[in-house]
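User: Quick one: structure for sequence A, then sequence B.

Assistant: Sequence A:
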Amino acid sequence: MASLMEELIATLDKEDLLYRQLIPVEEEKTRAIIANDLESLRKITEQEHELVDRTSAQEHKREQIAIDIATVLGMDPRTITLDQIAEALKGQPEDQKKLQEIHDRLKKTVERLQDLNEKNKVLLKEAMEMVQFNMNVIRSTRMSSGSSNYSSNASEVEGMAPQHGIFDAKQ
């Protein structure tokens, strides 16, 4: 059980480290979205995917360790949580403290990432709405009728009668 706990704590530390590495990437992504810098956004997305893949591997490893710990403790491996594992470690206060600290740190890191992701999601949605608005404006200007058809000398609009002012000088 002690080796499983050490492995769990080490895995959680690696997972937290990877999530913390994602924070500046997400912040840079926010700046790229605001600046409408598509090339930077592409590079950032590649970087983000690489870190997410590494994080997913650590999550899978953590889940496997949690299943092993649940089996040793006689708990349901499908529903075991870090809080339950920490509670089961009452006889090992040092391991319990380490696990609780990494759990709290990981929770704060994930909350920060969720906030950044939500902010980026809103910014991307607004950017997409702006693109859609611009596309609608372009379409509507192409579909507008006669008012932008000029004669060959470009001094008069074809198909429209010459306009006289409100006051007629001949009265």
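Sequence B:
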Amino acid sequence: MTFSNTTNVIYFSPTHGSEKIAKAVASGVGMSRRKYTDLTCDFDDSEISIENELAIISVPVYAGRVAPIALQRLSRLRADNCPAILLCTYGNRDYEDALVELFDFVTQIGFKPIAAGAFVAEHSYSRPNMGIAEGRPDSSDLALAKKFGANCLKKLNEYNCFAPFEIKGNRPYRVVGPSTPMAPISNDNCHGCGTCIDACPTNAIKLADSGDKVVTDINKCIKCCACVKICPNNARIFETPYTAMLHTNCATLREPEIFM
């Protein structure tokens, strides 16, 4: 297969876990030219054509499936002659059918998967003193991701690199029920600096009419908690009983899983 010596690192990553893993894999691949397609806060709906490049596609897992907003953003892509490395990150509970769903989705828009990996990243609901995969991906995760990238490059140079390979997951995919609208709120530490507005992947946050606070549209919020984690004043709070449940039930740290 002939293609340019270019890696296109494509990700949707509100709290940067998927981004970190994708960039570590790209480092391991080590191609001379690298491009980044960050779909996290890209609200454009125009088509993105990708030709003759190795794609690294990285997304977060929500309830055992690919985050719906990530699929929406990925739907803009159209690939021609593009092998792909598929990645998902999950908060130490399970990724269930996310990798299989991602495989099917990107195949439909023209990519040719050659490998896939599931990596642990700190859960969106993780909080100080109630961590859920706190600090992941860590240095060990990133080192393994880099090694995985190097192995993917070796596979890409093999004549049968597009041979079918097994990925853990099920078809039909796990059924996910409707999500209850909820959103982080602001406490008295909020001064309307706007940092959270810039970080929100769905434009759910805006300045209040007073100009010194922010307000959130719960119908747009996807509970990624990017605003909570990025706020410089600890002014964003998201209270959910799932934090304690996940902290208790998902305490045993899981390790990355690779499929080639």
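The chain has a mean pLDDT of 96. The radius of gyration is 19 Å.

User: Thanks, that's what I needed.
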